Amino acid sequence: MRRWSWRPQARPIPPQPPSPVPLTREWGSKGKEPPSPWCSFPYFFKEIGPRPGGLRSRPFQRRRGRTPQRPPAPHPRTPQKEDFMDLIETFGAKIGALSEEKPQRARQLLTAGFRANGVKNKLASKRSSKSDRMLFQLVNRAMVTCLAKPQSNVMVSLFTPCEMLHLQGLHPYSCEGFSSYLSGAMAEQPFLHQAEDTGIPNSLCSYHKVFIGAAQMGLMPKPRFILSTSLACDANTLTFRHLAQFYDVPHFNVDIPFESSPQAVDYVAGQLRQMGEFLTQQTGLPLDDGQLARTVARSQRTMALYHRGLRLRAGRQVLSDLTSELLRTAAFHFLLGTPETEAYARQLLREITTAPPAQGKQLLWIHTTPYWVAPLRHLFAQSTRVQVAACDMSYEGIVEADPTKPYEAMARRLVYSPFNGPAQRRIDRALEMAKTVGADGAVWFCHWGCKHTLGGARLGKKALEEAGLPTLLLDGDSCDRGFGGEGQAATRMEAFLEVLEGMA
Ligand code: SF4
C-alpha cells in the first residue's frame, strides 16, 4: 500500500468530479469539432487577436502601403555579473576539456586566465578594501608563478613552514590552495572525476582529490621536489607520498607529534634542520642561519600584526567577503615570511584601527569558507549586515616564539597549532578568539571529507553554546560544486542570522 506523504506527487490522487467544460471548448475552438490544434488554429488566433503592428500579424491583417517598421534595437546591455559567471563556467569547461588531450595548452590557458583575473581585480574591484586587493594580488601572483615557472616550484602541504624556500628564491605552492583556485575557475569537476576513476575514495577531502586529478591529467607541472607535514590531517601523509611517486621527485615529510610539549618542539625543530639540509642538497645553495632568523622574525611580526588587528576588531565594522578569508589562509601559510605578506598585515591593521563602529553581526568562522556557493558569497560580500570577524584557518599560526632560534620558532608554530592534538584545543582557541573579537555567533563549517573537523563539530557546538555563543553547524564542501546544497546553505545561514538579530 502506498504511504501518505507531504510530497504532493507521492500522495494518491482522489477521484475528481467530471469537468464542467466540455472537451470541445478546448484549444479555443468555440465548440466546433474536432478539438485538434490544426483545425482550431485560426479560431484561436482570431480570439486573442494578432499583435498590433507585429510582423506576424500580416497573414491575418494585411495592410497596404508602408511596411510596418521594426521596433528600434534596444541599447546594448551593460554586462551583468551573471554574464561574467557564464564566462567563467565556459572557461572552466574549456580547461577540463583541454586537459584531457592537450594538458600543456590547458596550463597556458589557465595561466592566462589567472593573469586576466589579476588585471580585472586591479581595475574593477573598487568596492573591496585596499588590504583585500593587496591580498588578492599576492595570492594570485603565487598561483600564476606556480604554473608559469615550474622550474622553481616546490609543492607543499598548507601547514609546511616555507621561510627556507623563500630564502632560496623557490616558489612554494600548496596543493589545497591550488585546488581552491581551480574551483574558483569552475574547473574542478573533471579532475575530481579523474581521481575517483583511478580509485581515490569519494570520501577523501576534495582539495586533495582535485589536486591528484590535475596531476594525473598533466595540468600541474612537475615540481622540483615535495615538502609536507602530517599537520593537519592524515590525508597529507598519503597524498604527498602518492604524488612524489607519481612525479618521481624527492619528498621530505615532517612528522608532528600529537602531544604539545617542549620535547615535541625539539623533535620537530630537529626535523626542520634536516629539511634545511635536504633543501641544500636539492638546490646546491647553503642556508644562512642569520638570514633565516630574519625571515622567521618577519613571519612572527606578520602574525603579531594580525593578532593586534584581531584584538582591536571587537565592535568595529570591517567589510570583506568569504573569498578574502580563504586567500588570507594562503597568505598566512605558504606565503608567510615574505615582505609582501607583512605589508598586507600592516595595511589590514591600519584599516581595522580606522574602521567605523560595527552595525551588523560579527561571526567566528571555524574551518574553510565555501566561497563558490554563490548565495552565501553574496550574503557576506561587503555586507553591513554580517561579517566574519575571525577564521581559525588564519589565526591558527599566532603562536609566540623566539625568532633568534628560527627552527624552534617554526616548530612551535606547528606543535602548538590548535589544529594539532585533540579537538578540545581547537575549541578552546575558538572560545578565546570569540571573546577577543566580540563575536555574536559562530559557524562551524563541516567540509565533507575533513574528518577531524567533522568529528569535532558537535563537541564544538556544545562548548561554544554553553559559553553563550549561538553556533551553526553548516554542512558542505569548500571545493566541490558537485556537492550541491547551495540554496540550503544560504537558507540556513539566513535563518541563523535572523536568530542572532532577534537576540539583539
Ligand atoms: S580540509 Fe581537512 S582534510 Fe582537507 S586538507 Fe584541510 S585539514 Fe586536510
Automatic annotation (TrEMBL):
Pfam families: HGD-D (PF06050). InterPro entries: FldB/FldC_alpha/beta. It comes from the Bacteria. Keywords: Iron, Iron-sulfur, Metal-binding. Its cofactor is [4Fe-4S] cluster. GO terms for molecular function: hydro-lyase activity; iron-sulfur cluster binding. Residues 11-21 have a biased composition (Pro residues). Residues 1-82 are annotated as: Disordered. Belongs to the FldB/FldC dehydratase alpha/beta subunit family. PANTHER family: 2-HYDROXYACYL-COA DEHYDRATASE,D-COMPONENT (PTHR30548:SF2), 2-HYDROXYGLUTARYL-COA DEHYDRATASE, D-COMPONENT-RELATED (PTHR30548). This is 2-hydroxyacyl-CoA dehydratase. The lineage of its organism: Bacteria, Bacillati, Bacillota, Clostridia, Eubacteriales.
